[in-house]
């Protein structure tokens, strides 16, 4: 925690120019963990200058040099695995069992996948027309990451920057600075050259705004809300920099009558509630075929009632709190909106679980008889709230599923794989999960429509950080 109030710039920990402190809170206990500093424009300029200076040499490093460096980062990441898990348990309320198995582990899984992708990724190739194609690092990258999957998103942005020979400035969410601090310590211990990676802490209106409009940053990669993504895109337009965005979602989950209803609805509820519902690709709209609707609602109710809510410090299969009071209040307001709009509250509802007065815990909540034009069916709630909508047939299911401004993920529960693939091709989403199929490290992640642009992970994630140059010879 010694570096929590310092920034990592130019290969060392430095005292910020800014003196604007922000408390870091434990959402389970409401206790103050410590304080971080919110960067100002001078801090951003200092980090960008270090990255610009480092780019000249690092951009000319060989692929093998970068593979060797990533191997050292992998070694150090494994050494700090428990530290990362405990950090995310404290700063954003991830239950420790899940923090180890998923939150911290994602930093290793993505890194291994990027190493494999880089080995096979050509930086020079001959085209059929006789020209030569070169892939080169885009330049200095500004990386802005969220609080809900802190290390997952840091790895998805920092690692491809290093892998392709870019230099970068990371601005994590100001609510989760501890895990980012530890990640900077990992990169330092691995021997990342000075200025290649830089860490500043800060908020969106301050540091984020300064980064997205900075003339010496060639690319911004942002994960967060669609509202913030719009603001970053507008601010970046003046300097015509590349902007990649991974934004919100309201993912449909289509349940057909021929699936294993008990298994698939129970699993769907668990996936919606996972990480306390704070995942952008969570299957939050359960679309159920009319002939099995009542049975599915009852299975979902039982599954939600069986979802344990508990202390993140305790081992076990339970969900933790929402990450802060602001998010808790927003979730509560949307639950009240669902009730006022006429949706049927099946279980859960406003308030905290019994006996959990301290901490920002929300009740696992299910609404049935929801219309797709209701607020709770269109807006991203980002809490443990599931809405259930009936559909008549395949065409109706596809229509409802696509009737959203988002397109990050979709889910299908179906006993007929031909039908599942047929429906999947018509869903406007970047990923479709069939019968519980999980995301695998190395696959591209990203969405259609207002869920963003660009892809993260594996080969496609590397390409986002590269420019393409062609050589034309006589």
From TrEMBL:
Transmembrane segments: none annotated. GO terms for molecular function: oxidoreductase activity, acting on the aldehyde or oxo group of donors, NAD or NADP as acceptor. The active site is at residue 246. It comes from the Bacteria. Keywords: Oxidoreductase. This is Aldehyde dehydrogenase family protein. Belongs to the aldehyde dehydrogenase family. Residues 13-470 form the Aldehyde dehydrogenase domain. InterPro entries: Ald_DH/histidinol_DH, Ald_DH_C, Ald_DH_CS_GLU, Ald_DH_N, Aldehyde_DH_dom.
């Amino acid at each position: 925690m010694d570096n929590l109030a310092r920034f990592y710039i130019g290969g060392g920990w430095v005292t910020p120019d800014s003196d604007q402190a922000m408390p870091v809170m434990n959402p389970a206990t409401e206790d103050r963990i410590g304080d971080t500093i919110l960067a100002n424009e001078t801090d951003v300029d200092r980090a960008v200058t270090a990255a610009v200076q480092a780019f000249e040499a690092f951009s000319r490093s060989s692929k093998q040099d970068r593979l060797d460096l990533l191997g050292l980062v992998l070694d150090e990441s494994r050494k700090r695995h428990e530290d990362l898990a405990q950090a995310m348990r404290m700063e954003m309320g991830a239950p420790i069992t899940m923090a180890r198995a998923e939150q911290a582990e994602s930093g290793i899984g993505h890194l291994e996948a990027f190493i494999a992708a880089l080995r096979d990724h050509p930086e020079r190739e001959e085209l059929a027309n006789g020209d030569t194609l070169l892939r080169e690092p885009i330049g200095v990258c500004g990386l802005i990451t969220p609080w809900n999957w802190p290390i997952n998103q840091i790895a998805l942005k920092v690692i491809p920057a290093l892998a392709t020979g870019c230099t970068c400035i990371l601005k994590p969410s100001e609510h989760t600075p501890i895990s980012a601090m530890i990640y900077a310590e990992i990169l330092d211990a691995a021997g990342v050259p000075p200025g290649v990676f830089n860490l500043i802490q800060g908020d969106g209106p301050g540091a984020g705004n300064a980064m997205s409009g900075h003339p010496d940053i060639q690319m911004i990669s942002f994960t967060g809300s669609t509202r913030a993504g719009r603001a970053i895109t507008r601010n970046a337009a003046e300097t015509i920099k590349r902007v990649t965005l991974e934004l919100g979602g309201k993912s449909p989950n289509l349940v057909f009558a021929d699936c294993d209803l008990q298994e698939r609805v129970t699993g769907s509820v668990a996936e919606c509630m996972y990480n306390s519902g704070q995942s952008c690709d969570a299957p939050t709209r359960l679309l159920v075929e009319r002939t099995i609707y009542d049975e599915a609602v009852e299975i979902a109710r039982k599954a939600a009632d069986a979802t344990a809510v508990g202390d993140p410090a305790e081992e076990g299969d339970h969900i933790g709190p929402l990450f802060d009071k602001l998010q808790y209040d927003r979730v509560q307001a949307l639950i009240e909106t669902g009730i006022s709009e006429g949706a049927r509250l099946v279980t859960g509802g406003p308030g905290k679980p019994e006996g959990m007065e301290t901490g920002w815990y929300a009740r696992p909540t299910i609404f049935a008889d929801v219309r797709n034009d209701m607020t709770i069916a269109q807006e991203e709630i980002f809490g443990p709230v599931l809405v259930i909508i009936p559909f008549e047939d395949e065409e109706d299911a596809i229509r409802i599923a696509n009737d959203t401004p988002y397109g990050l993920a979709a889910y299908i529960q179906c006993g007929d794989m031909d039908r599942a693939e047929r429906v999947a091709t018509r869903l406007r989403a970047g990923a479709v999960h069939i019968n519980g199929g999980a995301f695998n490290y190395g696959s591209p992640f990203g969405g259609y429509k207002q869920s963003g642009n660009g892809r993260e992970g594996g080969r496609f994630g590397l390409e986002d950080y590269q420019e393409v140059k062609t050589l034309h010879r006589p």
